[in-house]
Amino acid sequence: MFDAGVALQGHAFVAFEYIDGLTLEEWRKQHRPSFERRLAVLGDICAAVQYAHDRGIIHRDLKPANVLVGEGTSAKPRGVVIDFGVAALTVDDVTTADGLHVGDRVGILETMAPEQLTLGAASDARSDLYSLGVILYWLVTGRPPFFRSSDEAHRLVQIARQIREEPPPVVRRAALDAIRLSNSQLADLNAVIAKVLAKNPEERYRSVADFADEVARLREGTPTNATAPKVRYRMRRFVHRYRAVTIAATVIGMMLSAATAVSLEFAWAERAARLEESAAKVARDDAIDVLRKALRAIVNDVRAVGNPPELMKHWPQVIEAFGRAYGPNDPLVAAGFEPIGQGEAEEAIRQLVDHGAASSTL
Q1: Of 67, 82, 88, 91, which residue is the least packed, with the fewest Cβ within 10 Å?
Q2: Residue 166 phi/psi, 5° resolution?
Q3: Are 80 and 115 within one domain?
């Protein structure tokens, strides 16, 4: 409201912003907006209603005809709430209205909350919240959850009973108005509608601001509070919201898995080589140990007995031990592969003594 007062002719006036636009219903029919754009306009409506509630004002007649959608100089449509003619003030949680009695039925039947259909029941902010839920249903399907085909008395009574007693019809894919939703989006939408249109006001959202946050989650594709927060559900919502990122991450994950498999193969090969090397080292150490023992035994025998035949008896064992420990290029091993004659025994003994003495210090 820009101004209010009395004109020169004595007429009272109120000056409001001029909205160059259409009613919400006309805008929906003519522009056939996307799901996200419809929810963005609903977010504007919620912000306006919450602003009024913060100042103790209840609209009591929220409906598509009382919402204008204007684009003005911006390409982004903007929802504006109008007609507060039957609005009421709340003072100490008591609803009052000039010229109206508490509990009077106001507004159209289709957007009334169940408590508004009960004589003597007072309306509060949660009644406006219910009406906003009807507008949400209307925006996505093109009609309210309960509607009348005529003004016949029996039909009006039937709708009033449905509003008071029956849950809102589930939004089916075939009922959507020129919009496409995934299975998870549709499930979220129905969960939000069921909560905001609860018969018991205590079971609805705590405020219009909370409902507006939920509408924003619907628009952004994030998990809603009305839906059970299961891990599988939240994963579906994440994949739907970040489809491109998820696909890229999946491809990268597959590539990393392949790279990891190759890396593991190389790692296992390297490990096997290390095991083989370790086993060879153990075998080498064992051979050296055998060599040391054999040399000590033979040297002791030769020193004690001075018996060349004993040397000849143990010689193959010594050569084999040397071959395993030092390889065939060792001088003693190379010489040992040739038959040692009787004349070479003394030289062989000297070599064994020298090697035996050296090995005993290892």
Answers
A1: 91
A2: -100, 145
A3: yes
Do 35 and 126 lie in a common domain? yes
Q: Are residues 149 and 294 in the same domain?
A: no
Interval 95-151: pLDDT, tens: 554 444 444 556 789 999 999 887 666 678 999 999 999 999 999 999 999 988 766
Q: Assign residue 164 the CATH number of its domain.
A: 1.10.510.10
Q: Is the pTM of this model over 0.90?
A: no
DSSP codes of every residue in 303-327: HHH--HHHHHHHHHHHHHHHHHHH-
Active site (catalytic) residues: 61
**Residue 135: exposed, middle, or buried by beta-carbon count in 10 A (0-12, 13-18, 19+)?**
buried
If one compares 105 and 159, the residue with the highest pLDDT of the two is 159
Q: Is the residue at 151 inside a domain?
A: yes
Grade residue 55 by pLDDT with cuts at 50, 70 and 90.
Answer: very high
Same domain for 209 and 223, yes or no, is: yes
Q: Which helix (H) or strand (E) holds 88?
A: strand 88-91
- Say if residue 358's pLDDT is above 90: no
Q: Show Cβ contacts of residue 11 under 8 Å, excluding neighbours closer than 6 positions.
A: none
Q: Which of 225, 241, 257 is the last residue of a domain?
A: 241
